Amino acid sequence: DAGVIQSPRHEVTEMGQEVTLRCKPISGHNSLFWYRQTMMRGLELLIYFNNNVPIDDSGMPEDRFSAKMPNASFSTLKIQPSEPRDSAVYFCASTFCGYTFGSGTRLTVV
Amino acid sequence: GIQVEQSPPDLILQEGANSTLRCNFSDSVNNLQWFHQNPWGQLINLFYIPSGTKQNGRLSATTVATERYSLLYISSSQTTDSGVYFCAAADGNSGYALNFGKGTSLLVTP
What is the pLDDT at residue B3? Predict the structure, then answer.
């Protein structure tokens, strides 16, 4: 199994641009999570899906953030428009029992 | 949501030493996991341990759910053990969505 696959690994974008982060969970894992990691706030849960259905999006910082899971093998996290304060490492994780994290996307908004 | 507190925040060990990391949580848990974030940023699941004791090589973990704490033991530490150790917990209200502590930053010196 290739594990949880995230793309891109690094993204540098200008303020105001749209950013789309992608995640492919492990086959058979029925829950998927998006986390954001910053030095100030640590690891924060943004949203999670169970069987492709969004269950809790209370961690999404504001309306500029949206997430979708159109099928069991793909999820996206979109930021539009992006702002410098969105700079962080964004992790996707999937689970059947214990979490498996992807390698993360390091986002820099300038 | 459930609060997770880890101690100590920082730890420096000489290679070969043993250590104990502590995680306190504020409520009953149905899910508790320990992770290691290596210097390259990858988050690795060490243990899924909502209760009881588990061992994996030089690492072991114990969760005493009734007293709301978990311990991670590292024996005969090696320089490759360096990184940040996170404890994360979930109560029954949030499904498997984990809340993370701020971590213990471990440096093992030769």
Answer: 94
Q: Which residues, listed in sequence order, are joined to residue B88 by a DSSP beta bridge?
A: B33, B100
Strands A105-109 and A10-13, sheet pairing: parallel
Virtual torsion, Cα B57, B5, B49, A43, nearest 10 deg? -90
Amino acid at A57: D
Whole-angstrom distance, CA of residue B9 vs CA of residue B62: 19
Answer yes or no: do A42 and B35 touch at CB < 8 A.
no
Q: Cβ of A99 and B98 within 8 Å?
A: yes
**pLDDT computed for residue B91 by the predictor:** 86
The closest CB to that of A101, out of B43, B94, B97, belongs to: B43
Contact A97 B100 (CB under 8 A): no
Read off the pLDDT of residues B71-96 as tens digits, 9 standing for 90 and up.
999 999 999 999 999 999 998 776 67
The tens digit of pLDDT for each residue in A7-65 reads: 999 999 999 999 999 999 999 999 999 999 999 999 999 999 999 999 999 999 889 99
Contact residues, chain B, for A6 at CB < 8 Å: none
pLDDT of B67 higher than 90: yes
